Each structure stands twice: as structure tokens, then as C-alpha cells.
Amino acid sequence: MSIPLSISWSEGQLVILDQQKLPHEIEYVTLETLEDVFDAIFTLKVRGAPAIGIAAAYGLALSAVRHETEDLETFFHLVQKDAEYLGSSRPTAVNLVWALQRLASVVRNAGSVDAAKQLLAEEAVRIHEEDEASCRQIGAYGLELLEGKKRVMTICNAGSIATAKYGTALAPFHLGAEIGREFEVYACETRPVFQGSRLTVWELQQSGVNVTLITDSMAAHTIEAKEVEAIIVGADRIAANGDTANKIGTLNLAILANAYNIPFYVAAPSSTFDVSIGSGAEIPIEERKPEEITHFAGEPVAPLGTKVFNPAFDVAPARLITAIITEKGIIKPEYEKNIPAALGAYTGKGAHS
Ligand SMILES: CSC[C@@H](O)[C@@H](O)C(=O)COP(=O)(O)O
Predict the structure, then answer these.
(1) Assembly ipTM
(2) In this structure, what are the phi and psi dihedrals at residue 179, rounded to the nearest 5 degrees?
(3) Fold category of 7-133 in CATH
């Protein structure tokens, strides 16, 4: 039994687990160019907010090595241009721009282009390592919050493969498996691209967690029939007031948790907070292509030309969130006051110290 990983970097080589092919094929691909990294993020080969940020950071470092100028100012502009390009690959997860901005800023501290190239790679590695540590800490806090609870529901994949390791919402289950604490996890399949059935179920099986698959429409009945005791989800962006964007269907679960009076937890590292925006209304929601809904495994499941609305994320309002689990601690309402207190004085996108 082991916890699967999705991103590795060794001597300037970036290798990712192709999450589009899971669970039937376990295929690792080497990303060699900025365009490869853009495409991997855009097509969900690498996905999940922290993993997108980590991959983009390595992508920027990869591309920087190939810029031939010796002039630091010119180099900085080339890196900025690359960052803007990668940053446009997906709009909702704030970890993407957070990581890119963090990398671009290290160029400002470099004395030469060669030193800047080195610093970029080092900073990408640091982001990767910090995320693993954050996720482990989130798992430990999550275990505390879930004390005495066994049956827990989740959606999408906020797991190890969506991060550096352990995941956010799934971290308590991985850590629980290590120490013999047993959970019964109910994983929503997560239409339309099945991150729940393809990824979460696979990932939890790899680390020996007891997981049961349900369709998204079975959530309410399952909460009743199986006496689900808590819901835990990841996040793509958390506004200053605690409103949280996550995979489409998360809002349904937040409403259900409220209706059934069970806790609804969000688990995310501080790099997922965007305290530059006041509320979830300002979070850009990605819309993806209609074929994700009109087709299944390449076969049409709707009349040709059907009108489609395919938002990839929704926003759970802060009032429905029982607590937000971060590596810096467990944040409880009132979020407007408690988020800045937990994250420190940071006022921008992402909030790692
Ligand atoms: C730790 S991952 C948190 C979120 O990014 C996750 O829950 C999610 O919504 C992922 O969406 P995806 O479209 O698969 O990138």
C-alpha cells in the first residue's frame, strides 16, 4: 500500500502522472516545453489546485533555462511573458498564479541571468516541498476534526495526486491509514469528468482506505442511508470572507450538510486563499467544452447540437462551511476576521509565508 504521487522533478526533468489515463493506465509523461506544461494543465493531465501550481512553477523554470539573453531585465520580461501564458491555462485555481508570481519575483533578487535560472528551479522545488509539508499538516488537523467520526463523504479528487503528496481533503484518510484509524469514505463520482470515480477511488484504494463510489445524485440518499457523519472537500480558491470555489457539485454537498446538520469542512493550503477578493462572487468560474457532457467515452449521450452549460466549479458560501482546515490551523467562522488572523498580514493571492 502506498500513497501515489503525480509530479517529480529531477535534474531539470519534469515528469507527471497522466491523470487523464487513470485508473486503467498508469502512464508517466515528460514535459519538455512551456507548451507541454500548458497543454498538460489545460487538458487535465495534471489537475487539482496545488498540483497545477507546482507543475506551472517547474514549467516556468524549464522554459527559463532556454532563454538565451544575458540581460537580466530582458530575461525578467521573458519570464513574465511565460508566466502570463501559463497563468491563462485555467482560471479558477488561484494556486496557479500564486506559484507563477512567486517564481517571477525571485528573478528580481538575482544578480545575473544564470543565477536567476538557478533560483527559479530552487523556488519551484521549495513550492513542491512546502506543499507536501502543508498537506501533511492539513491531514493531521483533519484527523483532529474528524475525531470520533468514521463515515465521511467527499467529491472530486483533493488527494495526493492533486498536490505534492497526501492531498487536502483526502489527507486525513491517508494519514489515518498509516496509523490504523479506519474511515468509510463515500466518493461522489464527480460528473462530468469523473475525478471521483477515476482518481479518488483509485488513489484511496492504493493506500488501503475503505472507499465506496456513489453517483453525485446519490449524495442525499447516501447521507441518510449510510449515516454519513461529515463532508470534506478541497478548494480551488477561497475568498477573504471564506466563500470557497471547488469542483462543481461542492455547493450541493454544502447545502446537504446544512440540511442534515452534519459538518462541512473545506481543506486547503494557504496558497489557495485569495484575500485580494472580498467574496466568492469575484471568483472566475471555468467553463469547459460541451462534449464533456454530451459525450461519454467518445459516444454521444445527448441529441447532437444540444445546448450545454458546463461550469467546472461552483462556490460554497462561507455560511455553509463549518471550518476551513489549513496547514496554519483550523479556521472557524467568523471567517472575515479569522482568515487574516490565521494567515498573517498577507493581502494578495495565496498566502504562504
Ligand atoms: C487539492 S485539490 C483541490 C481542488 O483543486 C479540487 O477539489 C478540484 O476541484 C479539482 O478540479 P480539477 O478540475 O480536477 O482540477
Answers:
(1) 0.99
(2) -105, 10
(3) Four Helix Bundle (Hemerythrin (Met), subunit A) (1.20.120)
